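so my prof wants the structure for this chain in the tokens format not the other one, which i didnt know existed until like an hour ago. anyway here's the sequence
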Amino acid sequence: MRPLTSQDPRAVGPYRTLARLGAGGMGVVYLARSAGGALAAVKVIRAEHADDPGFRARFRREAEAAARITGPWVVPVLGADTGGREPWLATAFVAGPSLAEVVGAGGALPTATVRALGSRLAEALMAVHEAGLVHRDVKPGNVLLALDGPRLIDFGIARHEGATALTTTGAVIGTPGYLAPEQASAGLPGPPGDVFSLGCVLGYAATGRPPFGAGGGAGALYRTIHEEPDLAGVESGLLPLITACLAKDPAARPAASRVRDALAAEAPGGPGRVRDPREYPGRRGAPDPREHPRTPPAPDLWQPPAGLPALIAERSAAVLALPDPEPLPATLGPAGEGTASGPARRRLLTAGAAGAVLLAGGSTATWIALRGRGEGAGGPSAGSGEPLTYTIGLHADLGGPGRATGLAHRRGAQLAVTDHNARPDAAFRLALRAEDDAGDPAKALRTAARLAADPGVIAVVGPTGRLLREDLVQRYETERLAIVVVAAGSTTAESGTGLHLCVTRPFDDVLATGLIGYLTRTRPATRILLVEDAADPVSAKETGGAFRDAVPAGATLLEHPLVRGNAGFGAVARKAVTSGADAVVLGGGEASRAARLAAALAGEGFTGSRVAAGPALGPAFLAGAGAAADGWVFAEAYADPTALPSARTFTSAHRERFGVPPDTWAAEAYDAVGLIARAAGTTSASGEVRSGIARRLVRSEHRGIVRTLAFDASTRRVRIPDGIFLYRIEKGRPRFLGPFGDV
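here's what i got, hopefully its the right format
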């Protein structure tokens, strides 16, 4: 929750506003209180969107659809005004977190809890389907957990079964990883699609991971259509039911009523066994209420996940501690606006605050939808005469094994923020919020959640680890918060699937491009010995593949493997000499083994070029190779700002402020903040900074102190030519040579 600002209404219809819960691209969700004291979540649509007849019609359909759905496990509609200048919709307030939050923080749920969760969600879908509707976006983020059970929320894209699509033909509606194959193929959805999504949710709750893999986007869509779900770890009693829900053929899936019955009943065969839905006849189609009357499931007692009662109590206490509503203005305009000072200008905050039971405009519904803009935390409001303040988050390892890299990021970002704020023409100010994950994957997810929960954060620099994890990319994707990754050398996320991911460096798998350029232009080689280290097969394959695909013109490529263990270095060195090679390329990233190869080559008197990708360059190489390290050339993705004329001012400021020259990745972090500021400057006029920044980042071209940042829009990664730098070892130290194309 966030406090109300002077721009927020103090009344919306019969409700008195208490706080902001969140917002999306179309409006703001408020925590409010009715005249009788009941709490509500009130979604208010901005007037400029309500002026669009098409949008107003969609909002009216949403309100009408949600009002028709009743049941204990859906959030009820309390009231609405779809005809006003700023339409609004009020629903009951739920103080609980989402299923995504609970599983993301604590892992898989116990089987008994999953069974109770599923039976209640299936009953909620029965209510949806009996109303002639299809939800179309059943996912963990749309399930709130209360003390007595779950609540299904967000009917922003619910529609009549068989109705004409409201979006562009061929658009994928729903959330990849949780939508049915027919939806992933842009087909017409029906009740079986919701059952498929329910199966995905239950698989996620039972295992802690989506059945069709994390990462979202095109990869999840492909796996949903063509591959079987990963249900490893699902308890055997639940497995048949979830498998049935995830059938590719919609006709083979059980109806929601069958799922409810299967989960609620203790079938013959022992306590706790979930009855296979195939034991029920007539699995196709919507439920028949005469055959399956809606009765509360008996055996599956709801057991709140560990920590849920305390979390709900904490959030409820925060609600109770809110001050009484402020006195209303003497004259009220539409939706409770004070008219004495003119119409209030509402600023949008981020969606997804705990307890927000509806998201504005159904903005979580489409794969390409982005998040609402953030208001600068503590920043002045519009009309105050002072510029807004936008906060940039820093997700860094500041206390773990990668502390040096994290500290370099923080210092570079601090200097960038200071420089931006010193500009006399700055249209807004910047602030930096740093969060430490200590290099721990579990803490990293919690760090992402904290940054995403701050509505003032418009984008995040980081994380700063060498490996960019798919689950972390997915967490920021779920939160619709853009991340600008500076230092990661590799990722487990699929290329192009993170719509909020921007990578400002080439990954390690393309660094060999710089080595090929060096052996083509700088030190032309005619006989190149490719050495693939079996101890590091990933790097070996990446480097080897690059050279086989792009052998320098006129050169002959020779190959000799470097076997595991300690016996193969001498054989490689002898092959380099006897074959007449004038260059050796190491495919491998272990610095200690690179050092042993360097020593072996020196021992055989080899004097040709010796090159490797950056991961092999480290303290272990310099210490282990000694004098044999001299002359080796490495391709890296970072620059040495002390050797860059464009970074002289930065280097001087860094020395003055921190007493030391900038460390690796400090200058790149400085440029990342500059890129975010540029993107924010091009979206601020539309009033959607946080939502628009992800799109603008990869469309921007920012001339930084290290290099010009320009991106491939499909992969959201920086273009290669000026992003790979070469270093040569001289007198035991790496000497910066510059971009490989300029060396």
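also thought this was worth mentioning. The radius of gyration is 29 Å.
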